[in-house]
Amino acid sequence: MCGIVGYIGNNQAAPVILDGLARLEYRGYDSAGMAVFDGEKLNIVKAAGRLKILEEMTHGGSALKGCVGIGHTRWATHGIPNEENAHPHFNENETIAVVHNGIIENYIFLRNMLQKKGYQFLSETDTEAVVHLLDYYYKGNPLEAIRKVLHRVEGSYALGVIFAEHPDQLFAVRKDSPLIVGQDENGCYIASDVPAILKYTRKVTYVDNQEIVRLRGDHMHFYSIDEEEIQKESVMIEWDANAAEKGGYEHFMLKEMYEQPKAMADTLLPRIKGQDVVIEELNMTDEELASIRKIYIVACGSAYHAGVTGKYVLEGLSRISVEVDLASEFRYRNPVMEEGAMVIVISQSGETADTLAALRESKKRGFRVLGIVNVVGSSIAREADSVLYTWAGPEIAVATTKAYSTQLMALYLLALKFAKVKKTVTDQEFPGLLEDLKKLPDQIELLLSNKNPIQRFANRYIGAKDIFFIGRGIDYAISLEASLKLKEISYIHSEAYAAGELKHGTISLIEEGTLVSAVVTQPELYAKTISNIVEVKARGAFVLAVTNEGNFEIEKAADYVIYIPETNPYFSNSLAIIPLQLFGYYVAVGKGCDVDKPRNLAKSVTVE
Ligand code: M6R
Q1: Which of 197, 216, 274, 476 counts the highest number of beta carbons within 10 A?
Q2: Distance between CA atoms of 261 and 259, rounded to whole angstroms?
Q3: pTM as predicted
Q4: What is the pLDDT of residues 409-432, one digit of tens each?
């Protein structure tokens, strides 16, 4: 979603803003702009398309002089991506400039009201209502105007605001859209995410809902919506800027796939003590855990797919009934929920609007919410009752790989913990399961080292129209994720189907040469899925099978086979997904797609 960067200090603002926006490109955007105060007036430059255009228009920022400014990359919601709709937006006299991430839900009402008062709107955006409303309330005191605006706007927002009459100040405010601030000896910064300012400072402060920050060159003050000054703690960011660089890889996605073994080990090892799983972050006794009979998992996209696998693993190992919901459905379907249940929300960014809303809905109903989250200090991490962090490190590519893998690991750990306290796995079986988990990082490494044949195979499918993924049980969950990975970055139409469901409709789509990828890792379902392979082959499909080492029988049915190392079938997702991630990646690379920043997509979906 949109990215915001702002700076006030001794240095020229425009280069700092451009650099910060470039580091937020992964969030997804389709236009960009900046406003810088040059000592007399606000200069605003905007352009549709890539940030490169803005850089060229301003000669890398050097053409926009001034030490205070705000910048924005816009992911279009209200109005097409063009120059008029790009941010910053400004009032008629161009004395107030605003950048915004989020959605102002009552903007039509505000727009009508302001138009009646004579305000002219130049764009189709919801944001423009904010800047005119600021103008309407501004009587010389910026803080007071912002406070009044916050009382009138509904929806989600992170805002950066400059008033030309107060060029020694920069304002930031948020509700339900991420925003951080930071400071070094050269000035103060605002940004949508840490990588934008990590080059300058590791000490950042998370702005909380409906807080206003007034930044000057050498200090920051925080206020509540009622203008009371508040004290805030800052946090030290542990990872360094290199973690958010490509480090010699062609794409972030490839780098992040290669980081999976470490991310998996980092998520697993601190939570294994001897022969036990210890998850202190749960803050629950074994008795409390043992009393849980129902779990609701709620998430979006790949995190939802991790949840689907989690259902099979949790139900299988701990015999707790699990329901998995898409957050966008859960939040509005008024679900009937069992008393005493636990809600698990899963999110890499910790900012996904629907997942956050599902968390709040669950808490409102009195349920305990556990967040499985990657971004430390994110909204979901802060609002959940307890947080199980996935230690994947910063994930930049829009298509998730390492965060998804660590979400699986977190769910395996939970399943084992529940199994132990509920005694649904015997003391003899438990150490073997732990050993299998510990082997996963090396096994993933092995699969990654064998990428060349997958690249060659993928090259054959860069012209494909449709590709299908099928599997049963956990293999179906793997197929869901493999299909999403392929389609989001290669733009090839793809569907995942429960293998047994094909003959109820989808099989009519199979034509001569259609690629069907069959995931076959669950020994008790081998024969069933092989029957489905035979069915699609009879209709002309070319079948790629991903299966366990030793299942050589499959070669009689499938055309091309990728073997994964031996593990417990509950954990096979973590291995089978690796060649399928590589497949999706190499198809997209072969097609010349913008792998890290696929069209229309955003890394962190902060609007519903
Ligand atoms: O940050 P989250 O994990 O909450 O994001 C959820 C989805 O938006 C995300 O997984 C999305 O589907 C990815 N593009 C998939 O690669």
Answers
A1: 197
A2: 6
A3: 0.83
A4: 999 999 999 999 999 999 999 999
> In the structure encoding, which two tokens stand for residue 69, read together?
């400014």
Report the range of poorest mean pLDDT among 241-245, 346-350, 371-375, 596-600: 241-245
Q: Which residue has the tokens 């790009």?
A: 86
Ligand 1 near 379 CB (within 6 A): no
Q: Nearest C-alpha to atom 4 of ligand 1 is from which residue?
A: 347
- By most ligand atoms within 8 Å of CB, the mutation choice from 192, 253, 300 for ligand 1 is 300
**Distance (Å, rounded) from C-alpha 466 to C-alpha 473?**
23
Mutate to test the pocket of ligand 1, among 253, 260, 309, 352 (most ligand atoms within 8 A of CB): 352
Q: Which residues are catalytic?
A: 2, 603
Looking at residue 67, the DSSP 8-state letter turns out to be S
What is the Cα gyration radius of the chain? 25
Q: Ligand 1, residue 604: give the atom nearest the CA.
A: 1
Please give the helix or strand (H or E) that residue 184 lies within, else none: strand 180-184
DSSP code, position 281: G
C-alpha dist (Å) from residue 9 to 13, 95, 161, 184, 187: 8, 20, 15, 9, 4
Among 269, 220, 190, smallest CA distance to 17 is for 190
352 lines ligand 1 (CB under 6 A): yes
Q: How far is the CA of 371 from the centre of ligand 1 (A)?
A: 15
How far away, in angstroms, is 328 Cα from ligand 1 center? Answer: 13
